[in-house]
Amino acid sequence: MRLAWREVLLAFRRSPALALLSITTIAFSLYAFGLFGLVAINIKAALRTIEDRVEIRAFVINTAKDEQIQEVMLAARRLPQVASVGYVSPDSAMQRARAELEEFRDVMEGTLLPGSIELRLKEGARDPEVMKQIAGQLQTYGIVDDVMYGREWIEKLYRVRTIAGIAGTGLGFVFALVAVIIIGATIRMAILARTREIEVMRLVGATNGFVRLPYMLDGLLKGMVGGLIAVLLSWSTNRLVSRSFMQTEFFTTEQMLLGVVAGAMIGLLGSWLSVGRHLRRVWQDR
Amino acid sequence: MSGILRLTNVTKDYARSGVALRDVSFEMKKGEFIFLAGHSGSGKSTMLKLLAMSEKPSNGEVRISGFSSTNIKDREIPKLRRRLGIVFQDFRLLPDRTAEANIAFALEVTGASKATIGPKVSRLLTQVGLASKATAFPHELSGGEQQRVAIARALVNDPFVLLADEPTGNLDDKATHAIYLLLREINSSGTAVVMATHDISLIERTGLRFLVLDRGSLMYDGTDVARLRADMRGGGR
Question: Residue B236 — left, alpha, or beta (φ > 0 → left; ψ -120 to 50 → alpha)?
């Protein structure tokens, strides 16, 4: 193990430019992936905020009694998809309308708005089908005059969310693949520069594991440092955007750790595969 | 003397370049010194690759130091290599390490203890006549000296057999003779030597056993130098 670490240090001392190039390439590949990740989590956050506003409103007739309203509300609360149920009385509805529509204040004098039961749904249950089904159920009560849930709007939002999800997964896969290819090529280049050492090790009878160890440590270290730099760069970019343009979300600690671990794993895997190619060759014709 | 190396009807057929060795059989005794003679492309290097189990024969069997090409496992190859010493025409030293570091590196990767490495490197450098050049880098050494370092490195595991692939191919006559004498000295202490060369005059001077290969076929196995000239002149491309 000590020899492996010494070889890692020696390789860095002998060709620091190559080592720095590897680290920079890994860092920037993961940074590009990180930026994509930031865009993805912020789009997701924005959609979640919009989704939080999604509600179903069941307008009740003016003659509805309190017990009847309570009965509908209780039934709504029992539905597994429902997060919360509230009641807006005709007076509250009027006050709300006056406050929101100041310029029509006079027109609304004397007008009576219907009371309504408002339902908010749980995350994951806000798709058009579920909403349509709940609206249908509410409609079966005699006191319910009309149910509104912005059907078209919900369907559009749902479509956007589905497209964003598919595009996000697809693009994420492509970005990750590009990062793996670039990092793999960089590591292979670094290993090519050390072909002779591998050859000598094989020549004198070093085991495959022994030959691989220093290169895998090298790849692991470079990947880890590259991953750390990528997280730092992403953090700086996010901070800049947050300060200059708009408030954005950043990765959680777990996601940042995952980025560093992913860098390390790509480094490790890249080295393992690249050394493997050289392990079979001892007696190369030159 | 018992056999430590045996080829039985060995053929090596490469998918791209065709047959490199064709139905070759021979045996080598412990402590023997043999030359592999032949022109470029005659199959000398292929034979050495097969002996080091760097490649496996397409047909036939290579047996060396108790290992057989027919059933050796990949994980056993390092064990075999530790019983062999391998030397190349182009030395294959690590250019950024001194002579002693090149030899020490070979000991380190085979797991030798730190306490044994220093004395062994000194002994090997003395054995190859380079005690005074221990701290020299390869580029500071002549071709002959570099080959001596490579030979010292090949001896780190006290091999049964030393495989030398044209070790004098890049050297002048004087250095060639010196390297040959060094190999003979190593041979006299019990290590068998297989030396590939196309230097006919060197083989003639020694009177030792030689094998002549031509286009992958074994043309002659013996000590009759008259046959050497005839086979070498007749063969080749």
Answer: left
pLDDT digits (tens, 9 = 90+) for B190-230: 999 999 998 888 899 898 999 999 999 999 999 988 888 87
Give the CA distances from residue B72 to residues A65, B44, B53, B65, B82, in Å, rounded to whole numbers and listed in that order: 91, 22, 9, 12, 15
Q: Does B78 sit within 8 Å of A207, measured CB to CB?
A: yes
Q: Is A195 on the interface with B (CB under 8 A)?
A: no
Q: Which residue has the higher pLDDT, A286 or B202?
A: B202
Nearest-Å Rg of the Cα atoms of chain B is 18
Most B CBs within 10 Å, among A14, A199, A204, A211, to test the B interface:
A204
Q: Which of B55, B92, B165 sits opposite A196 (nearest CB)?
A: B92
Amino acid code (one letter) for B55: E
**Which residues of chain A neighbour B51 with C-beta distances below 8 Å?**
none
Question: What angle is formed at CA A201 by the lines to CA B93 and CA A25, rounded to 5 degrees?
Answer: 90
Nearest CA in chain A to B77: A205
B156 and A CB contact within 8 Å: yes
What pLDDT digit, counting tens, does each position of A41-89 carry?
888 788 777 777 778 889 999 888 889 999 999 998 999 888 899 998 8
Question: For residues B193 and B48, is the Cβ–Cβ distance under 8 A?
Answer: no
Global pTM value = 0.70
Structure tokens at A143: 């006191």
Phi, psi angle pair for B23, to nearest 5° = 50, 55
The enclosing H or E element of B218 equals strand B217-222
- Predicted confidence (pLDDT) per residue in A71-84, tens digit: 999 998 999 888 89
Query: Under a CB-based contact definition with an 8 Å cutoff, are residues B195 and B189 in contact?
Result: no
Cα–Cα distance, A111 to A147 (Å, whole number): 21
Interface with A, mutate which of B65, B76, B94, B109 (most A CBs under 10 A): B109
pLDDT digits (tens, 9 = 90+) for B13-72: 998 889 999 999 999 999 999 999 998 889 999 999 999 998 899 999 999 988 999 999
Could you tell me whether strands A82-88 and A116-121 are parallel, antiparallel, or unpaired per DSSP bridges?
antiparallel
Distance from CA of A199 to the nearest CA of B (A): 9
**Nearest partner of B227 among B237, B215, B20, B214, judged by Cα:** B214
Contact criterion met (CB < 8 Å) for A285 and B82: no
Task: Report ipTM (2 d.p.).
Answer: 0.81
Q: Which residue of B has its CA nearest to A209?
A: B75
Quick one: tokens of B47? 């034979």
Residues of chain B positioned with their CB less than 8 A from the CB of A197: 94
Backbone angles phi, psi at A115, to 5 degrees: -75, 160
Which amino acid, one-letter code, is at B231?
Answer: D
Mean pLDDT across the stretch A206-211? 84
